[in-house]
């Protein structure tokens, strides 16, 4: 899948999760980080359609479509549906590609649930990331989080299941507990089958007070999918970055304060970063498009930078073969075996297998390089960083 490997130490950030409460004010119109007030980005009062942002009651054909979207979402997003989707998609068996390749895929996606934007999603990613980059130049991890936060919308594409819009985008909410009235178009939940399950209709539902949002099943969509992709690929973004990815559409929480009884202390700290992020996620949407080719080198360098820090991910047997395949006194004659440990002895079995092909596959029958190149290129991209230090 789209590999998301980000080492915070590699990004040169001033990020400090333990002390963030000393730097962030609750008023997201004036955010203080590292002792500096950041007012560089001014939130506009109206969107590009002439309405207030997230104005779900404004009269327009697009608004009617948005309301129908939420009707379908609220009816179909049940606990069982979410569980099924997570089990299906956590296998991560649909594709392997780079972050930037995934960004370019989003040129094919338009979010029908968004009343503020009808441009391709890559523009929204870059508009958000560039606005954050301007105001927080030292917070590389936040630039990258902005770039990747919506990549899960590839679920709308055929290769990734071509899920209906209601199963990919829109505001998110917990399932397995009562649907809070802070949810937009709450009236449509009356047709959700979970309403009839007493276990799901108390404030806590199947959860416990302050259990932590990580333990809560959220409605299925691009947020949770990208969170799974990041987590299962060993992403080392700080917890605030993963929190932003999973909960940036959880407006009932970060706009209305609903469901806060499920949060633990770490969630409360990370929510402060989400409040910062949301200003740029929501208000940077514009008809003034970002020159993708102009900013691409910066984000590509950021992706490559963190990829290099994470290094080769070949299993230890692969590294063993690389280092010792010419060590014939050992793997042919058994010399020096007294220096081996248990891991060496296990890896030696693979070297014996490899040696047969290394030694005896030499032939005058040449391989068609261009024919097999795509397969080996895919393996290189799977196991190695984008660039190596030779």
TrEMBL record:
Fe cation binds at residues 124, 149-150, 222, 248, 281. Keywords: Ascorbate biosynthesis, Cytoplasm, Iron, Metal-binding, Oxidoreductase. One of its GO terms (biological process) is inositol catabolic process. It comes from the Eukaryota. SUPFAM superfamilies: HD-domain/PDEase-like. Binds 2 iron ions per subunit. This is Inositol oxygenase.
């Amino acid at each position: 899948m789209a590999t998301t490997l980000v080492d915070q130490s590699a990004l040169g950030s001033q990020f400090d999760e333990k002390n963030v409460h000393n730097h962030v004010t609750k008023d997201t119109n004036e955010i203080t980080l590292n002792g500096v007030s950041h007012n560089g980005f001014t939130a506009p009062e109206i969107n590009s359609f002439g309405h207030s942002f997230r104005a779900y009651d404004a009269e327009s054909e697009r608004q009617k479509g948005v309301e129908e979207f939420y009707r379908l979402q609220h009816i179909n997003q049940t606990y069982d549906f979410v569980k099924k989707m997570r089990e299906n998609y956590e296998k991560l068996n649909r594709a392997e590609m780079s972050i930037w390749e995934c960004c370019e895929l989003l040129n094919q996606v338009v979010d029908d649930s968004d009343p503020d934007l009808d441009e391709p999603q890559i523009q929204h990613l870059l508009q958000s990331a560039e606005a954050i980059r301007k105001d927080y130049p030292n917070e590389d991890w936040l630039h990258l989080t902005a770039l990747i936060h919506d990549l899960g919308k590839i679920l709308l594409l055929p290769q990734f299941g071509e899920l209906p819009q209601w199963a990919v985008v829109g505001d998110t909410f917990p399932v397995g507990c009562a649907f809070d009235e802070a949810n937009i178009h709450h009236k449509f939940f009356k047709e959700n089958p979970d309403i009839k399950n007493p276990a799901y209709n108390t404030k806590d539902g199947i959860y416990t007070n302050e259990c932590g949002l990580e333990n809560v099943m959220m409605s299925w969509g691009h947020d949770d999918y990208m969170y799974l992709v990041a987590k299962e690929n060993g992403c080392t973004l700080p917890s605030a970055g993963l929190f932003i990815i999973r909960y940036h559409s959880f407006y009932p929480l970060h706009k209305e304060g609903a469901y806060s009884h499920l949060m633990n202390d770490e969630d409360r700290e990370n929510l402060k970063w989400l409040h910062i992020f949301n200003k740029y996620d929501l208000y940077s949407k514009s008809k003034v498009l970002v020159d993708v080719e102009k900013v691409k080198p910066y984000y590509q360098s950021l992706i490559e930078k963190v990829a290099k820090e994470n290094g080769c991910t070949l299993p230890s047997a692969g590294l063993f073969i690389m280092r010792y395949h010419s060590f014939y006194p050992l793997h042919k004659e058994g010399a020096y075996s007294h220096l081996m440990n248990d891991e060496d002895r296990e890896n030696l079995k693979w070297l014996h297998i490899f040696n047969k092909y290394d030694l005896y596959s030499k032939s005058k029958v040449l391989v068609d390089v261009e024919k097999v190149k795509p397969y080996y290129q895919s393996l290189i991209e799977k196991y190695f960083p984008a660039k190596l230090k030779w």
